Amino acid sequence: MSHQKTQYIDQVQGYVLGILMNKDMRGEAGVVNLRDEYFTGHYSQCFRAIKDLYHEQRAIDPISVAKKMRELNLVPDVVSYTVWLGESPVTIEHWHTYKADLFENYKERRLQQIKADLARDFDIQKAFDEFVELNSEQTSSISRDAYTAGMELAQKLIRIKDGQEKVQISPTYLRPLDKVIAGFSSPDFILLGGRPAHGKTTLGLQLAFNMAYNGHSIGFITMEMSRQQLMSRLLSNISSVNGYKFNNADKDMSIEEINIIGKYVDKLKSLKLYISDLPHATTQTIEAEVVRLKRQYQVEGIFIDYLQLVSATKEDNLRNKVEQVTNISKQFKAMCKRQNIWVCVISSLSRDSEKRTDKRPYTSDLRESGQLEYDADKIIFVHRPAAYMNEDDPDYTRVENIMEIIIRKNRNGETGTVIVNTDLRYTRVSEFASTDLNLF
């Protein structure tokens, strides 16, 4: 290894340890998914002290770590150096990069050791087994016995109760819906489905806006519409300028309405909503964009519009559509866990629901693959009764603005149906006033 690379790896070890002490990073994002073997020399000793403090449920800070190292008869000189490295905001921003570099360096060192053992012992089977095990290792996937895993969960709950760790949850800010599902949390894989013209993208964009408006950092990957088309919907929503006018602004939109839109554009400055236009993207392209959004904007969740436009990988190109969607579903589920982020994928449904008397969708209406039903943590459908009526129907005006949000699957909670108000003129979904609910 070159002197320059050795220096960099030393710095990386210092960065990681410094962040652990400055930020007291516990749980799966920090101490739990690091191992002694990732560090070398004094850095390994420092991490040993941090890990002991973690298991003793004590504070992890520079003073406590130095004291612990003395208790273990270790030299605490490295502590002040790593704290200085780790306290920089730039360092903290690149935490995941440093952790990945640390892991890659460990794999390189381990591979060199396997080669050296093979040259010495000529044990090909042992070398092969060790290489396969090394190659399958991931920073986020380390086996533990049930007792250790249980202790980690118990300690996490204690930290949450004591206010030392926050539960990362993104409410939808539609109160009837939040009463059932509470919101979206990592690493949930959520499916939001509906037939055409029932408002699935409208609801998805409304939820993204609600979350961003309330201070959450949210990504929205659009594959169906361009970024400008999506922004037209959003600006129609918040400005109350009829959506159809955006299509022919020179004839249909007044200068007063353009000025109103301009004022609302200014209000978007503080909104943490990041829109990515990715036509014909594969799951690998989407994950790369998710990584970028997380690194650059610290997004906590992503909406993807929509599933049927996700391109198959080269390996899946020759397979049938069912196999392609099955693999796409598995890849999205794995991505949620790898990136520790919730992802809400908008999906179209088959026509089967329209053949039934009760046209409300069921999980069996998900197109192409039963794997979607298996992988998803939450399955949410939208249904507008008015979509199956003529405007001269006597009941049309009563249900014109009704949207049913049907929760068919909720891995960690209740299922059910909530009723909200939708105004398609402004692509808006909102709560009904309590007096309006008397209609039903």
Could you please describe the fold and organization of this structure?
The chain has 440 residues and is an alpha/beta fold. The chain contains 17 helices and eleven strands. It folds into two domains: 3-161, DNAb Helicase, Chain A (Orthogonal Bundle); 169-439, Rossmann fold, CATH 3.40.50.300. Helix content is 48%, strand content 13%. Helix 1 packs parallel to helix 2, helix 10 (200-213) packs across helix 11 and helix 11 (227-239) crosses helix 13 (255-267).
Layout of helices and strands, plus pairs?
Elements: H1 3-23, H2 41-55, H3 62-71, H4 78-86, H5 89-93, H6 95-121, H7 124-136, H8 146-161, E1 169-170, H9 175-181, E2 184-185, E3 189-194, H10 200-213, E4 218-222, H11 227-239, H12 249-252, H13 255-267, E5 273-277, H14 283-297, E6 301-305, H15 321-339, E7 342-348, H16 371-375, E8 378-383, H17 396-399, E9 402-410, E10 416-423, E11 428-430
Parallel strand pairs: 3-7, 3-8, 4-5, 4-6, 6-7
Antiparallel strand pairs: 1-2, 8-9, 9-10, 10-11
Question: Keyphrases for this structure?
Answer:
alpha/beta, DNAb Helicase, Chain A, Rossmann fold, 2 domains, nine-stranded mixed sheet, two-stranded antiparallel sheet, 11 strands, elongated, disordered C terminus
Order of helices and strands: HHHHHHHHEHEEHEHHHEHEHEHEHEEE
Global Rg = 26 Å
CATH class of the largest domain: Alpha Beta
Counting H and I runs of at least 4 residues, what is the number of helices? 17
Q: Give start-end ranges of low-pLDDT stretches.
A: 434-440
The fraction of residues in strands falls at 5-15%
Strand order of the largest sheet: 5-4-6-7-3-8-9-10-11
Kindly identify the CATH topology of the largest domain.
Rossmann fold
The CATH superfamily of the largest domain appears as P-loop containing nucleotide triphosphate hydrolases
Identify the overall geometry.
elongated
Would you tell me the overall average pLDDT?
Answer: 82
Structural class: alpha/beta
The helix content, as a percent range, equals: 40-55%
Q: How many strands in all? A: 11
Which architecture of the largest domain per CATH? 3-Layer(aba) Sandwich
> How can the largest sheet be summarized?
9 strands, mixed
Instruction: Domain count, please report it.
Output: 2
Q: Give the terminus-to-terminus CA distance.
A: 72 Å
